[in-house]
Amino acid sequence: MKEIGIYVHIPFCKSKCLYCDFTSYTDKNTEIRRYVDCLKREINYRSKDEYLVKTIFFGGGTPSIIDGKYIVEILSEINNAYIVDKNAEITIEINPGTIDKHKLEKYKEAGINRISIGLQSSKKELLKEIGRIHTYEDFENTVELAKEVGFTNINVDIMIGIPNQTIYDVEDTLDKVLALDLTHISVYSLIYEDGTLMTKMVDEGKLLEVDEEIERYMYWYAKRRLEDNGFIHYEISNFAKPSYRCKHNLDCWNQKEYLGFGVAAASYIDNFRIKNTDSLEKYISNVNSDKYYKNVTIEEKQDIDEQMKEFVILRLRMTEGFKASDFTAKFNKDVYKVFESQMDKLLSDGLIIAEEFGYLKLTKKGLDLANIVWGEFI
User: Fold this and answer.
1) Whether residue 118 has a cis bond before it, omega within 30° of 0
2) Which residues contact 130 (CB under 8 A, 6 or more apart)?
3) In terms of Cα–Cα distance, which of 128, 142, 155, 59 is closest to 98?
4) CATH class belonging to 310-375
5) The pLDDT value given to residue 272
6) What angle (nearest 5°) sits at the alpha carbon of residue 237, between those of residues 129 and 120?
7) Which tens digits make up the pLDDT trace of 38-74?
8) Which CATH architecture has domain 2-252?
9) Which residues in the chain are classed under CATH 1.10.10.10?
């Protein structure tokens, strides 16, 4: 039986964050019922008995903006259409200000056992800077409610490199978050994606990017604080208490297969990369017409070279790196011979290191210059 993960995209939001380039809508809430019905139909259409679902992840958008009964319906459909492991990790992303105790109770009853809360910063002026519509108090209340309902596996997203952010702001955010005794913390650098309002503001001189050296100092400060408080740094941006690493993301980084349902959702099955349309209208129309194939905007089969490059990039994202023998076991090739020039350059430049037992991993310098490392394999 083939083990897979499932990703469900909920594209609705109260408002669009200024840095966000994900497919999401702030003016389509009247379509929620129709969209959920289409999700259920797509889930059934693509079901196969030989799939064993190990992880389920609700992302967005803002999954917590829709009525809890819809999340229950979607999970029920997945359980009916697939064999879901009794110990499956089931995550939902939530934003403060869009959640209440009743919704959390619905999630818990439906089998969700991990929640991921978007905080970004404890400072209200910085939240406003990036277009967030909640306060730190909203976030803290969300954590308290989640614990009251019985959730024990809770992640929080923190952002560094926000315009006008200082190291003292990062310190304040970490002080407050660490006091809440959470199990997982993600620390992301703000990225200026093409087409976002934030990038437009920077291009027009209305915002100044944080100096790269300061942003890197913020990262290493956060890493030290989190490790000092019992968190394991297991991936470039992710820190977890023992036994609380995100299984869904780990499976993606280990090139495990997954199905994506909904607008803009991506799948990786049988070495095929598949992506659904970004258009909500087209998605609903095609599903209702039983023309599921029309929703696929990208369908590419990875050749062996692409698989090997992706193996190296994704495995190096994890702080432990990978064993050269694992590469050989998967592809029957020597990673040092396949990527001889890249390996020689990265090793000589001090961006990766070969450790005992055959492990290859990013160095401290490599963590700071990871995009340069990835560039060698793209």
Assistant:
1) no
2) 17, 18, 19, 120, 121, 159, 162, 190, 198
3) 142
4) mainly alpha
5) 95
6) 25
7) 999 999 999 877 899 999 999 999 999 999 999 999 9
8) Alpha-Beta Barrel (3.20)
9) 310-375
